[in-house]
């Protein structure tokens, strides 16, 4: 039951985040380009990507992960941290690219594959506390970076086998 409650909350969070985008693009519109950016820390900047002014362009900052940022990261039960190249993809850079190109939106992606080359497992210790922590920490990141949406990309799950 808790897992169902959690997934329903994720769906609501995603619906809320996408409702903030004023010009929703339908699947039939082929003038949309989405690009994950920042996951590999290779000094990639928004300015490295050519942006066609006739295309709705969505950068997706990769990744916000609910792990701590230590040398040996561990899960934080919904307290998300930025794991993208925040020096080159900073809040001021997000603001700048959006001012230069009105067709650009910037979102963040949750989860991803790894943290410091180890699989990033989705493993909430409590659904209620995970949801509370996630809403709080993600709201802070979305506000700090003035983001337009949230993408969910969890790739590894660990279920509680005790019922």
Automatic annotation (TrEMBL):
Boundaries of every GH18 domain copy: 31-163
UniProt keyword annotations, A-Z: Glycosidase, Hydrolase, Signal
Keyword Coiled coil: no
Pfam families, alphabetized: Glyco_hydro_18 (PF00704)
Claim: Signal is one of the keywords in the record: yes
Family the entry assigns: Belongs to the glycosyl hydrolase 18 family.
Name under which the protein is recorded: Putative Chitinase 1
Species whose genome carries this gene: Tripterygium wilfordii
């Amino acid at each position: 039951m808790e897992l169902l409650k959690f997934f329903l909350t994720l769906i609501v969070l995603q619906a809320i985040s996408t409702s903030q985008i004023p010009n929703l693009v339908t699947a039939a519109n082929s003038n949309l380009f989405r690009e994950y950016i920042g996951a590999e820390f290779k000094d990639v900047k928004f300015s490295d990507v050519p942006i066609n002014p006739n295309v709705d362009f969505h950068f997706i900052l990769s990744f916000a992960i609910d792990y701590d940022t230590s040398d040996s990261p561990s899960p934080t039960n919904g307290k998300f941290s930025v794991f993208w190249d925040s020096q080159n993809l900073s809040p001021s850079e997000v603001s700048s690219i959006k001012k230069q190109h009105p067709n650009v939106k910037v979102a963040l992606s949750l989860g991803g594959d790894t943290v410091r080359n180890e699989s990033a497992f989705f493993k909430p210790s409590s659904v209620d506390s995970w949801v509370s922590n996630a809403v709080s920490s993600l709201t802070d990141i979305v506000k700090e970076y003035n983001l337009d949406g949230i993408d969910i990309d969890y790739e590894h799950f660990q279920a509680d086998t005790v019922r």
